[in-house]
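notes to self, project folder thing:

trying the whole complex as one job this time. last attempt i did each chain seperately and stitching them together was a nightmare. two parts in total, labels are on each line so i dont mix them up again. if this works i'll redo the older ones the same way
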Amino acid sequence: MSRGTVSIDVERCKGCDLCVQACPPKVLEMSTEVNGMGYRFPVLHDGCTGCTACQLVCPDYVFQVYRFDAAPGEEDASGTPSATPPGEGRPSATPPGEGRSSGTAPGGRPPGRAPASGG
Amino acid sequence: MTEAAPRLVARDRPELILGDHGLCPGCGEPVALRILLEVLEELGIVERSIGVVGHGCYGSFVQIMDVEVLQCLHGRAPSCATGIKRVRPAAVVFTMQGDGDMVNEGLQEVLHTAARGENVTCILLNNGVFGDTGGHQTATTVVGQRTKTSLDGRDPETHGYPIPVAELVASLAGVSYVARGAVSTAGGVARTKRMLRSAFEHQLAGDGFGLVEILTMCPTGWFVPAGSGPEYLSGSLEAAYPLGELPLRGQP
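result (full assembly):
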């Protein structure tokens, strides 16, 4: 169960890898695909604690960190966050293999700056 | 329905940063900019803050930071800050300088400003290279560090020894706060932010000169991969420049 999650602005990322090293629960991994600038970017796996370490070290201001005040319910874990911040055209973090293309929201989720459910 | 509303705990960047910067992957200077602006925001002094910026990679920040900024000649930022502070004592005046700017090009400026006890805050972004002009050796390049002009590593026989400017400043009277942080780890970023906050609180209290040296990564200038910057920093600059608040030795 994830206690937190992050939104990742993949188009702003320059692929420096600092967040992956800084992440205490080791739930960030660099993608195999690249963004519009040609850089690999981090993707989030289950187990985020919302500790903000990635946001602290990121030189390109890629991360916004959220915490779940209570444990997410089943409907939230299935990929529909109950509170979606207003859309700004920012793609959210996705697990690898979801076939996400840059600039579009994955998995049938409405486009916008929605935090990934992260499990 | 279960409560699972995600609560925002950390924004990507303060609203004072207006756009993207063009610095290299893995650079530490944008992190320093972010914590600096966050401190100004948290202290509620944005409206009366005036930044004085030297020349270096961070010079491009003047285009994206929503704070009054004066960019001055190489190394002269502390003197310009002196003038601004004396004319407008209510302003919160800070400088942002690199090691090439502060220690090579304008070492006497910062030392005299400190010795005069000017009530300004100087921020040194120290990465040991002239990043903006191609990665040459600076006066703070540590012994053994490779740069474009010391490809076999800095050799004291040929290049002399680095200048620890924070220790020099801490030895002067008129100085109220000197600290050295690093932005290579999450904990280091948080500690460095507290140092910046303390420095500005000293200025607000009118205590005198403050200096915060921030060790930043320059993987391009260090010839290491972007992700190896923190590891290189902890083995080179951090070994030569111990982190923490420095004892003030020059109090009269």
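what i see at first glance: Residues 11 and 35 of chain A are 6 Å apart (CA to CA).
need to look closer tmrw
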